Structures are given as C-alpha cells and as structure tokens.
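User:
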Amino acid sequence: MHRTFRTTAVTVLATAALAAPPSTLAAPEGAPPRAAVPDYDAFFTDEAMRVELFHTGTDEDEAYSFDRAVAEPLWPGTRRNLIDPTGFGKYRFRVEDAATGTPIFSQGYCTLFGEWQATEEAMKKKVRRSFEESVRFPYPRKPVRLRIDRRADEPGPDGIGGFREIFSIEIDPNSHLVSRERRGADYRVFPILSSGDPRRKIDVLILGDGYAAAEMEKYRRDARRFADVLLSHEAFGRNRNLINIRGIETPSRDSGPDEPRKGIFRDTVFGTSFNTFDSERYLTTSRDRDMRAIAANAPYDTIFIMVNTSRYGGGGVYNQWSIFPSDNEYDDYVFIHEFGHGFAGLGDEYYDSATAYDEAFYAKGVEPWEPNITALLPGAQAKWASMIAPGTPVPTPDEERFAAVVGAFEGAGYQAKGLYRPFRNCKMFHKGLVPFCPVCTAAIGRMIGLRAE
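Assistant: Predicted structure:
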C-alpha cells in the first residue's frame, strides 16, 4: 500500500564540532556500507540524552512532535559503533553535529505506532491516534540536529524499502530547558549478573509490572530465574562475560496487568495490558515516559518488562522493550522469543496464528529488513545465502529430511505464501522446546558484537 508522510521541524540552536575517524569493525552480512565512525569523546559526555516525542497519524500519514529533552546519568551503550551498520528497523534516528552536519550517532528501531498502522482500526476505520515514544543517545557536548527517518513501502535497489526523513529538530544540550528530573530514585536497583563496566557490556534490565509491594521477593526470584533462562541459550551463554543483568524493584498498587476483555483494569507502574490492538494475547505497554524515566536509574541497553501473570502473551518491539509473563506454562519461550524481537530485530516466522495485522504488515514485492525473513524476490538470493549448503533446494521443501539444514522454507511473517524463513523450526517459529536456528543465533551474536566492547 502507499502511504504519505509529513515532516515537522522545531529549531533550538547550533555550534561546531570535530571530525571523526573511520571505522575498523566489519559490518554484518547484508548491511549497508559503514559510515565513518566519530570519536566518542570529541562529541559526547558520559551522560545520556532522551528525547521524548509524540507519534501521531493514521495508516496514510504520520507526524512526530517534540515534547522535551531529558538528561540521564549514564550512557551505557557502545562508544565505538556509534553509526548503526545493520540497516534494521522500520524507523531510524540520526544525530548530527548542528554546525557541520557531521553524523555522530544513529540507530534503527520499531514502534507500536508502526504496527498499529497495519491494523483494521487504522486502515479501515481511519482512526487517528497518538503514541508516546522516545529516542536515546549519548549526551552531546554541543548542539545537535536529530533526524527521524521512516522506511518506505516501495523497494530500493536492494529490494528493501529505503528510508525517508519525516522529522527533524535542533537541540541545545546546554539549554536550561533540558530536564534533569529523577523519577523513581528511591526504587532499589539490584544486580543479578555483574560482568564489568556497563560502558563495555550488554546491559539487560528486567523491570517488573503488576508486582505489589508484598510481592517483591517473588519479583526478585522471578527475575533471577529468567536471567538463568537467558544464559542457558547458546547465543547468550557463550557471551556471558559480555552481559550484565540488573533489576529494579517497582512495586505496583495492584497485582497483575490489565485484561480488558475480562473488564479487569489494574493500577500498575507501567500499565501493561493484554488486548493491545484488540489482539487477545498481545501484552504491551503504552507508557514510554514512565518506563524510560524509571529505567534511567540503572544502566541499560535493552529492557525487559516481566509481568506478574499466569496468562499467555507478550510482545517485543525492536530497540524499545520485550514483555513477557512470569508464570505461564510457556513463559520461558515467550521471554526468549520476545528478546529476539526487542534486541536483535528478528521477525516472527510463524504464519498460522492470527494477529491484528496479518495481511498488511509486510508490503508485497519488498524484501523484509529483518535478518531471518526473506521474500526471495526475482533474481535475489536469501540474505543468509552464505549459510545454505551447496545442493540445498531453494525454496526448500518443508520435509523431515531438511529439518536440520539452513534453507528457505515458505511461510513466515504471518503469511503462508510469499515469505520464507531460514530453518524448518526455530525459537522465532515455534513455542516448543527448540533453540534459535543458526541464522537467528548468528544475528544475535552479531548484535552482541556490535554493542559490547
């Protein structure tokens, strides 16, 4: 489908900055050419900046508006790979030195708004909605321009939709209007796995929602159990020395999440709720402000929200959050599966389960950006072609004799036809006791390598 895009801009101030040295780290397979990587210390301090935004529109148009900039105590992310080489995400934000236009930071991401655009409410009912969002990057020493790009639904030269700018704003980090408020500073931060300096590690933060004050011991016990689950998987366990895991005790007034179809609404810190987009099992939060403000009390690169419920459901949005239940029969699976979305940008490989946006999520004739889904467009190879053994048929028959080989199996991304997954069975496909496939494992490993030093 065709969508139009609006550009909004707000201006604050500008000055000069320094040039940056080139990168020496090879980009992942299939990534775009790497831009020169700036010198972190020349452009940034040890703090972080969070820019809070509102994302508004319908399925046919969208616009960002600026709310405020917030200073956070520490930027725990990479100081080396500041320009995102992956090309992942439905959206991308770029930070430039305001005086010279030098690119100094970028990151791809996804949004609930972007998912909502493919729902019946947006496409057929033409409802206009707004969502809280934010982007986060190292705190700049001098004024910067923040630009946000949205991926087009039309294919570029590589078959994947290119990015087009939809928003920009100039921000002065030395302005008295940058907020330095601290929320939740009295919440207790507790370590689960300590591997070293957060500036050189992957920092995983597990927040609890729907845990009442009397349930904090359960929250700590649950958080430790899922940390063990994470490290039990090969992609994470073999990189254990690169991972820190922490929790923050965030007691809620009520126990459990909202369950709208049952008429149950609870007062919790992050407002997690089932029935997102009226999808029964889609468990998410729309409270980006609350989540980010409280998470800022601990170093984090990626956020889990662990919801105190036995009901099946969850969600994961790339470079936003991963949400899972604490006490469901399949909670281990949901936890790891959603981490694949939130941390590594992996796509859903299943196609036989209803979602709110089955038919519209992937545009026809466009190669998906996710590293584990391909459209096998005419004349193109699967993006994981180097991992397919010679003699393996492509497309690959969904037969037992190909159960242990990398190929291109039809059925992925909520569609039985036209999209392909790399392995017959995988953690992104099936909720049974199966591991990540070799392609997904490699994608996770590459992401760890890009973010840890």
